[in-house]
Specification:
Blueprint: E1 7-12, H1 15-23, E2 32-35, E3 43-46, H2 48-51, H3 61-67, E4 72-74, H4 78-92, E5 99-103, E6 106-110, H5 115-118, H6 121-136, E7 140-145, H7 148-155, E8 163-165, H8 171-175, H9 188-196, H10 202-206, H11 210-217, H12 221-227, E9 244-255, H13 258-278, E10 282-292, E11 297-308, H14 311-322, E12 332-343, H15 354-373, H16 381-390
Parallel strand pairs: 2-4, 7-8
Antiparallel strand pairs: 1-6, 1-7, 2-3, 5-6, 9-12, 10-11, 10-12
Helix pairs in contact: 4-6, 11-12, 13-14
Length: about 400
C-alpha cells in the first residue's frame, strides 16, 4: 500500500441555491440567487442556471438582476443550510475521523487510514458522493490527491457533479496547462501582476527561477515555488468547533457618523456575545471589519491576555479599533465585529475587581431573558435611542 497520504476535497455544488431548489420544486431548473434584494444586497450563492448568465457570488444583486432579469431571489435560511450541512458531514464521518471543515459546504478528508476497510480513496469518494445524493439529493463534487492543494484544485475542475483524481506521477505536467488562477492564494490582483510578467499558466510559473519569484511574491516566493509543482505538506486537521463568531451589517445608505457606527457596533457586539455564551465559548482575539463606499475593505484586531464573551467588553474593544480607521472621514458601507482564538471556559485568571465580577451576572440575565422572550424583549438604552431616531 502506498506511503502517500490519501486526501479527498468535497464541495457541495452551489449549496445554498441547491437547497432552495430542493425545498421549492418550482425553482428547479431555474436561475436562482440567494441574497437580499435591497439596494446594498449581494449574491451569497447562485445556481448553475444563474451562473450561465454571468451571475456570481459576492456580486451586487442589482448587477445580477440586470444580467439575468428572470433571476429568482431567495432570502438566506441559515438554519436550514446548517441542518443539511450537518447531515452531509455525518456521512463524511462514516469514513474517517479526520474531517477538516472549511465552511458549511466544503471539507477535506484524510482517508489514508480508511483504505484497508473501504478501499482506495477514489472508491471512498465515489461512495460518499452516492450516499450524499441518495440521502439528501444534494450533489457534491470531489477531488482526490495525495495532498490538500491538489485535492482542492481537482474538485473544482469538473463542476458541477465533478470527480477528478490526481495521480502522484506526472503532477507538474498535469498542472502546467492550467490557468495560474487555479493556484491557492492567486486572486485577481496577483493574476494581473503575474500577467505583467508574461505568466498566465501554471507551467509558465514553473519556468521562473527563485530570484524572479522573490521579486513577484516576496517572502511567499518559496510557497509558490512549491505549489506550482504540486507540493504541499499541510495535514488535515479535524475541527468540529467554529473558528470564530462574528456579526456584520451592510447599510442601505452609507454612514458618515461615528456615533451611529458605535451604536450599530454595540448591537452587533451584543449578538456576538450572546452567541459565544450560548455555545460556551470565550475568545482572546477581537476583530473589526469595515468596508468603505468604494468597496475597499479593512480589518483591525487585538489579542488579549484573557478571553472574553461579554457584549460590552467586545464593544469597548471594537470602539478602540474603530478609532484606528477613517470612519467619520470616509463613508462606511459595512461594519462587522468578531471574536476568535477560543479558550477553554474558566481558563482565564479571575479578576480582582468586583465590577468585573458583576459582568457575567448581567450577561446571564440577558441570556435568560433573550432566550425566553427574544432579543427585542430587553434592549440597552443607547440602542433604544437609536431605534427612536429611525422612527
Amino acid at each position: 500500500m502506498s506511503s502517500l497520504r490519501s486526501i479527498i476535497h468535497l464541495d457541495l455544488d452551489a449549496f445554498f441555491a441547491s437547497v432552495e431548489q430542493l425545498d421549492f420544486p418550482e425553482l428547479r431548473g431555474t436561475a436562482v440567487a440567494v441574497g437580499s434584494r435591497s439596494s446594498r444586497g449581494v449574491v451569497a450563492a447562485a445556481s448553475y442556471e444563474a451562473r450561465s448568465y454571468g451571475v456570481r457570488s459576492a456580486m451586487p444583486m442589482r448587477q445580477a438582476l440586470r444580467l439575468c432579469p428572470c433571476l429568482k431571489v431567495q432570502s438566506p435560511r441559515m438554519e436550514r443550510y446548517q441542518e443539511l450541512s450537518r447531515a452531509v458531514f455525518a456521512i463524511y464521518a462514516r469514513y474517517t475521523d479526520l474531517v477538516e471543515p472549511l465552511s458549511l459546504d466544503e471539507a477535506f478528508l484524510d482517508v489514508t487510514g480508511s483504505r484497508r476497510l473501504w478501499g482506495e480513496a477514489r472508491d471512498i469518494a465515489m461512495r460518499i458522493r452516492r450516499e450524499v445524493f441518495v440521502e439528501t439529493t444534494l450533489v457534491v463534487s470531489a477531488g482526490v490527491a495525495h495532498n490538500k492543494f491538489l485535492a482542492k484544485l481537482a474538485s473544482d475542475l469538473d463542476k458541477p457533479d465533478g470527480f477528478t483524481l490526481v495521480n502522484s506521477e506526472g503532477v507538474e505536467a498535469f498542472l502546467a496547462p492550467l490557468a495560474v488562477r487555479k493556484i491557492w492564494g492567486v486572486g485577481e490582483v496577483m493574476e494581473k501582476r503575474l500577467g505583467q510578467w508574461g505568466v498566465r499558466t501554471i507551467g509558465e510559473l514553473q519556468a521562473l527561477d527563485r530570484t524572479t519569484l522573490s521579486r513577484i511574491f516576496g517572502r511567499q516566493a518559496e510557497l509558490y515555488y512549491q505549489l506550482c509543482r504540486g507540493r504541499d505538506d499541510r495535514v488535515v486537521v479535524a475541527r468540529r468547533a467554529a473558528l470564530s463568531v462574528s456579526q456584520e451589517q451592510t447599510f442601505e445608505e452609507d454612514i458618515h457618523s461615528v456615533d451611529m457606527l458605535l451604536k450599530i457596533l454595540l448591537r452587533l457586539s451584543e449578538k456576538v456575545g450572546f452567541r459565544l455564551r450560548k455555545s460556551g465559548l470565550q475568545g482572546r482575539c477581537v476583530s473589526l471589519k469595515l468596508r468603505y463606499d468604494d468597496f475597499s475593505t479593512l480589518s483591525r484586531s487585538r489579542t488579549l491576555d484573557a478571553p472574553l464573551c461579554g457584549g460590552m467588553e467586545i464593544h469597548r474593544l471594537g470602539m478602540e479599533l474603530l478609532k484606528t480607521t477613517q470612519a467619520g472621514q470616509r463613508p462606511v458601507r459595512l461594519i462587522g465585529i468578531g471574536v476568535s482564538d477560543f479558550q477553554s471556559p474558566g481558563s482565564a485568571q479571575p479578576s480582582l475587581f468586583d465590577e468585573q465580577e458583576k459582568k457575567p451576572e448581567l450577561d446571564g440575565v440577558l441570556d435568560e431573558v433573550w432566550g425566553r422572550f427574544g432579543r427585542k424583549s430587553l434592549v440597552r438604552g443607547t440602542l433604544l435611542e437609536q431605534d427612536e431616531e429611525k422612527s
